[in-house]
Design brief:
It is an enzyme of class 1 (oxidoreductase). It holds the Pfam family SoxG. Its EC number is 1.5.3.1. One of its GO terms (molecular function) is sarcosine oxidase activity. By secondary structure, the chain is of the alpha+beta class. The protein has two domains: 99 residues, 2-Layer Sandwich (Gyrase A, domain 2); 80 residues, Alpha-Beta Plaits (2-Layer Sandwich), CATH 3.30.70. The protein contains four helices and eleven strands; from the N terminus they run βββαβββαββαβββα. Strands 1-2-8-11-10-9 form a six-stranded antiparallel β-sheet. Strands 4-5-6-3-7 form a five-stranded antiparallel β-sheet, with helices on one face. The N and C termini lie far apart (44 Å).
């Protein structure tokens, strides 16, 4: 596997209403197939130690995870250096069934948005109801962030993880940085706590 190189060099923004950090590259595998099939559930359990997530849900356990992306697509997360082995394991479990498992690690970038106003920052950019009652831990949204596609979920109470295409990483970082500028908190979601 190639050496892990991030899209941007140590992109980080602090001092605003939320912190924005480009994370080190992580392993990401796009899986397509019949999500209800027994072989799929068995493959997920063996590859990442997790079951099939519900619609618009994500399951994370340490450095491994599985996210629902569409009715026939999942995004598996694993350590970057274990992607090839994980794909080999999936391929063996899939057998001759019509499925696809492809390494998308180098085609994606991952950001962490953290702080008391992280919901407010994302709400400025994405057409998603981010109220604490509507968007809770374990949920994922595949949506747009201003003009580009993205997916995000709650990592813990005040932090989110966001995945975007690597080719738009600079644009996404600039958007998040602008939305997190000091003094720009609308106090909408953070005040609802």
């Amino acid at each position: 596997m190639s050496e892990a190189v991030s899209a941007l060099k140590a992109a980080e923004f602090t001092g605003g209403i939320a912190e924005v950090t480009l994370m080190d590259p992580i392993g990401m595998i796009s899986v397509r197939g019949d999500l209800g099939a027994g072989y799929m559930k068995k493959a997920l359990k063996k590859a990442v130690g997790l079951g099939l997530p519900d619609t618009r849900s994500v399951q994370i356990n340490g450095d491994r995870g599985v996210a629902w992306m569409s009715p026939d697509e999942l995004l598996l997360l694993c350590p970057y250096d274990q992607v090839s082995d994980t794909i080999d394991m999936l391929t063996k479990c899939f057998g001759s069934n019509h499925t696809l498992a492809v390494n998308v690690s180098d085609a994606r970038s991952v950001f962490r948005i953290s702080g008391a106003h992280s919901r407010d920052v994302l709400a400025k950019l994405a057409p998603v109801d981010l109220s604490p009652d509507s968007f809770t831990p374990g949920m994922i949204r595949r949506t747009r962030l201003a003009q580009v596609p993205a997916a995000f979920w709650i990592e813990d109470g005040d932090s989110f993880r966001l995945v975007c295409f690597r080719s738009v990483a600079q644009y996404v970082f600039d958007l998040l940085k602008t939305a997190a500028q000091p003094g720009s908190a609308p106090e909408y979601y953070s005040a609802a706590r």
